Amino acid sequence: MLFEIFKNSPFTKDWIVLHSLNLSQHTVRLYGEIDFLILIPGGGIFVMEVKGGDVKCIDGVWHYTNKFNVTNTSNVGPFNQARDAMFSLRSAIEKEFGRGHKFTKVLFGFLCTFPHISFDKHSVEYEPWQILDKDSIQNGTEDFFKNLVQQFIQKHRGKRWFSEKDSLPNPSDLNLLCDFLRGDFERVRTVKERLTEFDKEVKKYTEEQYRILDSIQINDRSVMQGSAGTGKTMIALESAVRAASEGKTVFLTCYNRLIGEWMQKQIEEWKDKITVSSLHSFLFEQSKGFDHDSTQDSLQDFYSKYLPTLLKDIYQKGISKKFDKLIVDEGQDLIREEYLSLFDSMVTGGLANGNWEIYGDFERQAIYSQLSKMEMIDLLKSSGQYSNFLLKINCRNTKQVGEETSLISGFEKPPFLLEHLEGIPVEYLFYKDEVEQKKLLDEQLKKLSEKKLPLHELIIVSPRKFENSCSNLFSGFTIREIKNTIEIAATQNFYGFATVQSYKGMESNYVLITDIEDLTSDVAKSLLYVGMSRARYGLILLIAESKRNDYRELLKRKLN
Questions:
Q1: pLDDT tens digits, one per residue of 476-511
Q2: What angle do CA 348, 352, 357 make, to 5 degrees?
Q3: How many helices and strands, by DSSP H and E, does the chain display?
Q4: Is residue 542 very low, low, confident or very high in pLDDT (cuts 50, 70, 90)?
């Protein structure tokens, strides 16, 4: 909240605000941190200590309770923290520029912020005008800071070191100080930093998502429909955590193994209450130790029919304890009679009377389903009454990626509402043969490497398996198939590859799709929809030259 105030308020447009500035040399402690360092032209430098949530002080011990109802205590009060950090910063500046430098005369001040409470406790340890609380934020943050600056100027104007010229720094002084404090971080952004900023925008819950989450609380059974990028998985995760915090046991499942592993990592701290797994992995693990026909291991219906029936019996007989809540992501791939019958046995009260949620995209992402959208809806209706919700706002993809995904996958208009997320144009490159495609791939990877794009920020996807794809036997860069999410890390020294099918449900800042040799069939449109919508920010497509005319026809529709 404070970050947004500083970022968007007109009165701060000439300020420099540094968030979470670490102090490697602290006057009191081994290390320190400044929540916000505010550099105000004509005003000075101000250290802000922020304490969110509830605050109380008993016998000199401060207690801070956050939104998760977790309380931390400290013998050092927030005002002392801010003051100590201020003196530590002054010492660091003096050490860098020298004792006689004008920067050692700059006016310093400190304040404490309590954004969630009214803080009206008076003390000799601080002045009332050093407190920014919920009330003063509502009354006007600009007036508060004007008064803060004036009070500190008045307090120090009579000091021998104070100088109207040197103590109230101009913008160039503050830029030079910022270069020392945090280099050119605030002025020059690398690709990685731009992506970090973009990630924060993407992951914010939209008002629509909050509405859905609130509605879930008063509906025991819900079906959430939404196209790619509308935040279904994020809502499912949050709903699972909310249920677990109420003491419920939750089974959170999906179709895709990679997304199951990813979700498992996101809520690992709740693993005693939330069981997270792709359905097929869960079926196989749960069936270990039970007699089953091992000759069926290689048959297609082993996971889709045999194991669901086996696990259904296990839950019906009470061998395994039922869950209080069931949450199914990628529902379009898991709505079939065998799975619904299993789910009915797993959740307390069954599907007719139990607590469950199903999230799905029934338009283009049902690439594994054997049923039509209406057949899946009819199956759900036969299982009991539930509430329907529709997610429309795309909060993953940039406007450019969203529009092009809709165009190429055959929608007359986007199946979602695109927010304000601006990005870069989608790139379409055409190859005549396999040799030229490998050359194009090499050129694109070199270009991204020169831009310092971290390797883990890009995924190469293809409708083909790795051994049949353009990425196999590639000589320019190391490309490896991603088989589990633990391989995707900031330390990886290779570019990751995945089939479109295996990467469904996942996402990456940059996506490069190879081996596109069909733009018109329903299967191709579904695969392109899934593959293209994985890209948050940058998207590159390598398309066979023989399909250029098909692309031109799609482009005509866009221009019309």
A1: 899 999 988 888 888 899 999 999 999 988 999 999
A2: 75
A3: 18, 22
A4: very high
Burial 246-276 (b: 16+ CB within 10 A, else e): eebbbbbbbbbbbbbbbbbeebeebeebbbb
How far is residue 453's CA from residue 446's CA, in Å, rounded to a whole number?
10
DSSP per-residue string spanning 457-509? GEEEEESS-GGGSTTTT-SSS-EEE--SGGG--TT--SEEEEETTTTTT--EE
Residue 513 token pair: 């799709």
Cα 324 from chain centroid (whole Å): 27
Are residues 169 and 177 in contact, defined by beta-carbon separation less than 8 angstroms?
yes
Measure the CA–CA gap between 234 and 238, rounded to whole angstroms. 6
Q: Please state, in angstroms and rounded to a whole number, the distance separating the CA atoms of residues 513 and 428.
A: 10
Q: Which of 425, 398, 459, 399 is nearest to 198 (CA)?
A: 398
Instruction: Assess contact for 356 and 347: CB atoms under 8 A.
Output: yes
Strand (E) positions, 341-435? 355-360, 387-391, 393-394, 417-418, 427-431
Buried b (16+ CB within 10 A) or exposed e, 96-127: eeeeeeebbbbbbbbbbbbbbeebeeeeeebe
DSSP string, 309-320: HHHHHHHHTTSS
Rounded Cα–Cα distance for residues 167 and 106 (Å) = 4
Q: Residue holding tokens 């695969």?
A: 527
**Cα(299)–Cα(317) distance, rounded to whole angstroms?**
26
CA distance 137 to 143: 9
- Is-contact 208 546, C-beta < 8 A? no
Structure tokens at 8: 């968007």
Say how many residues make up the chain.
Answer: 560
What is the per-residue pLDDT for 415? 56
Cβ burial 386-404 (10 Å sphere, 16+ → b, else e): beebebebbbbbbebbbbb
- How far is residue 168's CA from residue 529's CA, in Å, rounded to a whole number? 56
Please give the backbone phi and psi of residue 528, each rounded to the nearest 5 degrees, phi first.
-65, -40
Q: Do 16 and 8 meet the contact criterion of CB atoms below 8 Å apart? A: no
CA separation, residue 435 to residues 272, 481, 496, 505 (Å): 52, 21, 21, 31
Strand runs labelled E in 375-421: 387-391, 393-394, 417-418
Supply the pTM of this predicted model.
Answer: 0.56
Residues 60-105 pLDDT 10s: 888 888 877 888 888 888 998 899 989 989 888 888 888 888 888 9
The angle at the Cα of 272, spanning 269 to 274, to the nearest 5 degrees, equals: 80
Looking from the CA of 297 toward its CB, the CA atoms found within 13 Å total 7
Can you read off the two tokens belonging to residue 549? 């005319």
